[in-house]
Amino acid sequence: MTRTATTDQALRLLLVDDEPGFVEALGRRLARRGLDVHMAGSGREAIRALRRADFDVAVVDLKMEGMDGIELLRIVKAMAPELPVIIFTGHGSERAAREGLALGAFDYLLKPCELDDLLATIRQAAAQSAPA
Known about the structure:
This protein is an alpha/beta fold. 44% of the residues lie in helices and 18% in strands. It has a 5-stranded parallel sheet with strand order 2-1-3-4-5, sandwiched between helices. The protein is globular, with a radius of gyration of 13 Å. The protein has one domain (12-114, 122-129): Rossmann fold (3-Layer(aba) Sandwich). The chain contains 5 helices and 5 strands; from the N terminus they run E-H-E-H-E-H-E-H-E-H.
């Protein structure tokens, strides 16, 4: 499910990564920049969050234990086809991230990336998916 953020509402972001320290630190940094961040530590947790709430954008780590980012992307696109998903990847998995683009991901970013680059991509994804 997605929703459209208005100018006086914070963008609702679903941030999914199985590294607790990373997801918490990044989530705090994005929240300080005005985003309403919901953090999920696994693909299953992300699916539960999608069932309970609407989001403007999802940022999903590619390499996770259990359900990887590509599998989660497929499920998200079945549940909420209009939700923009940004793949976040490290470990030299750029080829797999390109596969994500073919499956409907909005974009992918390589870890580590500058916070401003991530924010710009999140805002671009939210703006592109907003109804005219």
